[in-house]
Amino acid sequence: MAADPMDPTAAFHELGRINLGETDLEGVMATVAELAKRTVPGAYEVSVTLIRDRGPHTVASTGAAADHIDKWQYERGSGPCLDACRARSTLSVDDVSAERRWPGWDENAGVVGVNSALSVGLPIRERVAGALNIYATSPRAFDEEAVVLAETFASYAAVALANAHLYDTTVTLAQHMQTAMESRAVIEQAKGIIMSQRRCSADEAFTILSRASQESNRKLREVAADLVDRAQRGPAGG
Length: 238
Known about the structure:
CATH superfamily of the largest domain: GAF domain
Helix content: 55-70%
Number of helices: 8
Largest sheet: 5 strands, antiparallel
Number of strands: 5
Radius of gyration: 27 Å
CATH topology of the largest domain: Beta-Lactamase
Number of domains: 2
CATH architecture of the largest domain: 2-Layer Sandwich
Shape: elongated
């Protein structure tokens, strides 16, 4: 059962309420696609394409028809969604059966009942390009008002996507820093234990620790953690 149409203002409000701390990048994309499907008049299925280092892929879609059409384009490196991504522009296909810009794309879209399409490039910065792809079952489904609405919606969506990408990157960096800090702490603890046991300097303790890491073919942090664990357990725990 199709969801009820949504007022654009309400859709934009929903985009602004996305809590990046409670979802991931894919979750944001899914919300964008669902809201676009309910907001843009004539929309049958919607997908979001992103082009990153590993190439183009659909990060969210509302149905199999959109997945089918997108996959065909990625495999051939040609199609409206890819052109919209690269040029950060809007590409409209009023009648799929009469489309000749991308040989074979018309037949591929027609197989899943899509007769018109609209791809709006998302103005995402850095090395990420994207497009909001909206597919319809009838020819000429998107009039000028629908196109303007889609472009306005895409500008809101781009902000949400860019924020999600930044949040995802920031969280990953924070996790790496936390891991590095924890590793440094346990290595310093292990050096202190060695210094106490061997009556040696900090540099000498680090050399001993490094040699043990190389000889056992294990990471320095793992060797240090084992040493600290044994010291905490004491003779009875060994």
